[in-house]
Amino acid sequence: MENNCLGTRCGVLRVFCAAVAVGFPVSGAWAVENVSIGQLGAVVGKAQIAREGKTLPATKGMSIFASDTLITSEKTAVKIQFSDGSSFMAFEGSTVKIEEYQIKAVGAKGVNVKSALDVAKGKVRFFVKPRDEGGSNEVTYKTANAVMGIRGTSGFIDATNPQKTQLVVLTGKVEVSNPKISGQAVFVAANQMTDVSAGKPPTPARQAPADLVKRLGNDASKVDAQDSKSQKSDDKKDDKKDDKKDDKKDDAKKDDVKKDDAKKDDAKKDDVKKDDAKKDDAKKDDVKKDDVKKDDVKKDD
């Protein structure tokens, strides 16, 4: 995962970073906003991340932090995958600020998640992972005229019109209200929708048209397909890297074998030379002995 820390970010609580990297923060403690809370998945088109007064180009695998703002251009779609398994997808012309994201381990496997996202404009698809093992979700999506409490569900929020928010729920249930009008919340179940206009309460939940659900699903499927394709491409690159490493290991082994063979050949040559030298010495000794015998014979005569 790419480290895009700026300023003092990530510098003071690395223990939390390590905990989030494996799935959850330290048991009983809320992870703080200086910790990476997820990463960018598919990036189709051009998008930017506004962070601490700086603007960064959005790239696949980029780390995401609480207080980041995602800004998408035309013909763009970006998916963010959170550490707890939840995600959201922003389509073209969207501005989404992550106002809060906290995660805390509960028991051996449970997790509590508290988050708030402000959809200033545009259209997003959200998925909040349902909790088990005693965990819970306190997830809120906001627009200019709507607040949506999400506990474990998926759907679409369309805020392309600043005067009107449209919510379509695919799974689970969402509580919707207009923050400027108290006491008139509406619960929207799976395959239902509602509209919230400026200065008005949410419309009663109604059945979402099949063609609308299909169109929204197709838009998201294209990005999911791109994300899957990118992941497969990354996996292939990793496989190629592993293959290259294996090839290097094989080459190293071959080199070692060649070196061993060369050493053995040199050793054999040395042995042959030593044997030849011994034979030569032996012959010289025999010649000397013969000469000595001849001299002795001559003396006797």
Describe this entry's structure for a reader.
The chain is an alpha+beta fold and 301 residues long. It is 33% helix and 36% strand. It contains two helices and 17 strands. It has helices at residues 14-21, 210-300; strands at 36-44, 47-51, 54-57, 63-65, 69-72, 77-82, 87-90, 95-106, 110-127, 136-142, 147-150, 154-161, 164-171, 173-177, 186-189, 192-197, 206-207. It has a 17-stranded mixed β-sheet that branches.
Helix share bin: 25-40%
Largest sheet: 17 strands, mixed
Count of runs of 4 or more consecutive helical residues: 2
Our Rg estimate from Cα atoms comes to 36 Å
Number of E-state strands: 17
Give the overall shape: rod-shaped
The pLDDT mean sits at 82
Low-pLDDT segments, ≥5 res: 1-24
Which structural class fits the helix and strand makeup? alpha+beta
Residue share in β-strands: 35-45%
Layout of secondary structure:
Layout: H1 14-21, E1 36-44, E2 47-51, E3 54-57, E4 63-65, E5 69-72, E6 77-82, E7 87-90, E8 95-106, E9 110-127, E10 136-142, E11 147-150, E12 154-161, E13 164-171, E14 173-177, E15 186-189, E16 192-197, E17 206-207, H2 210-300
Parallel strand pairs: 9-10
Antiparallel strand pairs: 1-4, 1-6, 2-3, 2-5, 5-8, 6-7, 7-9, 8-9, 9-12, 10-11, 11-14, 12-13, 13-16, 14-15, 16-17
